[in-house]
Structures are given as C-alpha cells and as structure tokens.
Amino acid sequence: MREHDEGRSGPAHGLTRRRVLGIGGALGLVAATGLSTAAALARRPSITGAELRSAVPLPPPFQVPLPIPPVLKPVSTEGGTDRYEITQREASAEILPGVRTPLWTYEGTFPGPTIESRRGRPVTVTHRNELPVPTVVHLHGGRTPAASDGYPTDLVLPEDWHDTTTHTGHGSEHGMHDPRAVVTELTRDYTFPLDQRPTLLWYHDHRMDFTAPAIWRGLAGLHIVRDDTEDALGLPAGPRELPLMIADRAFAADGSLAYPALDPTLRERPGVHEPHFAGVLGDVILVNGAPWPVHEVDTARYRLRILNASNARHYELEAVTDDGRRLDLVQVGADQGLLAAPITHQALPIAPAERYDVIIDFSGLPVGSRVGLVNRLGSGRTRDVMAFRIARHATDDSRVPRTLSTDLPTWRRTDAVSVRDFSFRAGRMRGGHGWLVGGLPFDPARTDVTTRLGDVEVWRLVADVHHPIHLHLVGFLVLSRSGRPPLPHDAGLKDTISLRPGEAAEIITRFDGYRGRYLFHCHNAEHEDMAMMANVEII
Questions:
Q1: N or C: where does the chain have the smaller number of CB atoms within 10 Å of the terminal CB?
Q2: Does residue 536 contact residue 168 with C-beta atoms inside 8 Å?
Q3: In whole angstroms, what is the distance from residue 451 CA to residue 449 CA?
Q4: pLDDT in tens, 293-324
Q5: Computed over its alpha carbons, how large is the radius of gyration of the chain?
Q6: What CATH topology corresponds to 3-46+408-538?
Q7: 0.85 exceeded by the pTM?
C-alpha cells in the first residue's frame, strides 16, 4: 500500500472528456500525468464533480422554515442500555413546496430521527429493512465494535430477497466474494458502546457499491453524544443549539430526486453515468431536508452543529449580514468533539462527512435584520445555504469558555511504530474507470493494512483531486499539509480530512478500542462506490 507500489494498476490513460465543475478536463489530465498537474489546481477553489440541473421550478430562498429532526425515543432503557427501533422504508415528503418527492427513509423522515446519547451508556438500534434492496448501517465517527460498524458487505436483506449472489456478501457486477460477510434477513441489531468524547455523529447507509445513491435518496440521520462535563461549560443549549445537516440534491420533472445511476433500481449494476464519474452535485441546497430554509433567532449566541452530508459538494461557509458584514464563526468542536480552545474563523471550509461545532453571536444585530449562511464555493442558487432572521430581543446567559477540553490526545511522531503512505487518485479498474487507494481498487477479501491494538501510526496521504478521507473507528490529529503546519480548521480530533487537489497531508492516530476489520475510504460517495476504499485489520 506504499506509494511506490502503485505501478501494479497503472494510470488511467483511457479517461475520456467529461464535464467536471471547477476543474473541467483537467481530471483526465491529472489521472494520466500524476500529481504535477494537480499541484497547479490546488490553489483554486475547485469542486470535484458535475452538477445535475433540476427539471422542476425551484422556490425562492429563505421562505421555508428550518425543520429540526425529531429526537427518537428509546423503546427500552433497562439494564443500562438504551434500545431503539428504526424501520427503513419508502415514504414521500414535500421537500419543495407543492411537490411530493419519493424517498428512502429511516422512520419515514429525511433526515432520519436524531438519537441522543450519554457518553459511555450503550445504545442498541434494531434496524428493520423494508426497502427493496439490501442495506447496511454505519455510525460515522462511532467507536464501534467491528460487528456493528457497518462493513459494506454485512448486509441486511429485505424480505424475499432472491438475488443469491448477495449472500456471498457482494452482489454487484464486480463479482468479488467476501468470505467474512455477515448477512442477516430483515433485521439487525447494531450495538454502539459510545465510550467516546461527546460529539455529533451521523448514521447512513454503507452498502457495497451503492452507498452514494442510498444516501442521496434519504438514508442519513444524526446521533449526538453528550456528557456532564460538556453540559457544564455553558455553551448555548436547548432551542439555541441547532443541528444543521447540509446536503445538495436535484429534482426530476416528476418531483423525484434525480440521480445518474447506471441502474436506477440499485439492484445489480453500480456506478453513475460518465459525466458524473467524479461526483454528483445537485442544484438545490437542503438543510435538514428543507430548501434554503430560514430560522428565527433571538439576539443571543447559537450553537450550530454542522454536518456536510452531501455526496460530493464542498462548502466554504460564511455568515453575512444584510449590509455585507461577516460575523465570526467561533469553532468549539470538530468531528470527534470539543477543541482545546475556541478558534475564530471568518470562513469555514467543510468537505463531505466533516462536522464542525460553531458558535455564532446574533446579539448585536437589530430585530428584523437577516444573516445569510453563504457558500463561497457556490455559484447562482448554490451560493445560498440558509438564513437566520433576528426575531426578538432576549437575555443570554451562555458563554464560550477559553478552555473547552483537556482530554485531547497528545500523540507525537516519536510515538509512531509505523509510517505509511497512501495515494488517492483516479485509475483503471477491471477495464473501466475507478478511484483507487495506493493504485488498487477495493477488495473486501484483501487486508491492506495490519496494525496492532494500541499502536500509534503516522499516515501520509496524497490526492489528485478533492478527496475527503475518512477513517472508521479512530480519530486522528492533523500534523501537516504539504509540509506546512495544519490549517486553522484542522484543529482538534478529526475522523475525516479534506485533501485538496495535489495536496499531501500527514495524520497521526492510535488504533485503540476494538480488534477486527475496519475501513478507510474517500467520503466523496461516488468515489467510495467506485472502489476508493481499503481495509485495516486491527489485531
């Protein structure tokens, strides 16, 4: 898996022209010529992917109220474990005003219901699959035993599923066999110990080869972990704590979600049509399932728990007043929980699957004014995300302490027992286009990395185009980017790092928690489905 082993696969000389937003035909050139070309792209705010255009009239922005996903109630709290039940089923919802959109859902809603947990108190979720295809559930950012981590071949089959190839753990045209797949019918219990720092997690489908279209159709929800220490900090809470799941989508003429799947049934043939090989972008920005919503706020501080649940779209968020003034975005947390101390940003980049915990202060603004959450990487309608309308004066006893957390890891390079190199780039895969890790497409039966429980390792990651790299099970610290110090938004404990075109980064982590087989992969969901994943075996 070291970079110098990549010659086994070879570059993608056969890439044809495609329309890729922000980088145009350069993607093919990058794949063919390597990282020298990509380095020239790194200074541009490029976006990897091609945009779908909706075929229905789109509403004006800031008309629809921001929905807050309902918090799921446990069916049992006995024995020190909170037990939940979630049914995965088809439903329809009015996402665009006056238009019904069919969805695949958790409990009939998009996003799915939020689960709220206490640190160290186990949760068991029984998922029932009433969808027409197999599913897998992954709790993204969870420190989870391998049996419940949502490995892509550990399928939950719907009733009367007759595709016998799926029983091998892999039913796609790639034809790979996974002898370790654990397949269940109709239901599966996922157990999450949640012995981890308080933070915002999210759960989503992780089925082999079909993760991207399943998330696009609605299979995503939030899971918040809390503890007494964080509760005592005095950060904004209650109605002034807002979960914000940002996701782009596009709509077909009949109101359904447009997606360029090669097989719209999502049963047999994975992948997307050629123009969208680099990633699928929509022209509608949804927050908590609503298009360009608006939320009424007090003249007070608010805590925004932001998740980028888009398949491929990157955002650079700014909070801008009606008169053009930028408000501070005070970051208090990252993917894996609180920072050591707050960091103030004017703009905050966020890649697919990243989470940021941000405080915004509306106290100095006049009632009746508005603050827009803007995406600097967008254009036209995708530049707007949502708005806050200052509705009323109010008192505010919240605070942002100078010290937020004292339990962040202190790993040093000298602690590392291994240094590994991984490249993430386009390449050839069984006669077609793919996205490769270290020159190889994903194979569930191949162990790519073997490490010992408790080992500290440094990983050096390099990209051709945008790749948000996610490690299952563990959090990591960012050591450097292209030989320079980490960027301000790299602070804290992360589980996803956004690599920009031509960029290299170093991360350090400790493989603790549980033994077993885990994944690391690109969280551009189309790249992930086209084989940009690899296995880590913790022994």
A1: C
A2: no
A3: 6
A4: 999 999 999 999 999 999 999 999 999 999 99
A5: 22
A6: Immunoglobulin-like (2.60.40)
A7: yes
